[in-house]
Write a sequence for this structure.
């Protein structure tokens, strides 16, 4: 499972990395799974709640919980999740 950070336009040119201790983090954290299947939906939700309590806006990609064999969806689905997160 991977967390991608989408920068807001106002901070697009800033080179300062956001920190978890910031009172108003910029952008949205997007959680996606570019490789292995998410084994525990409960752990994923706990992580989302913790990040939310730290002040982050959090989105879980629509394909993050998919399973195909040991992977989080087929190759095409996982690649699409990477593209959505990068966008």
């Amino acid at each position: 499972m991977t967390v991608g950070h989408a920068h807001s336009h106002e901070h697009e040119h800033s080179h300062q990395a956001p920190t978890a201790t910031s009172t108003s983090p910029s952008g949205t954290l997007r959680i996606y799974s570019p490789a292995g299947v998410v084994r525990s939906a409960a752990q994923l939700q706990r992580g989302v709640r913790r990040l939310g309590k730290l002040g982050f806006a959090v989105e879980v990609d629509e394909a993050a919980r998919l399973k195909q064999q040991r992977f989080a969806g087929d190759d095409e689905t996982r690649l699409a999740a990477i593209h959505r997160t990068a966008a």
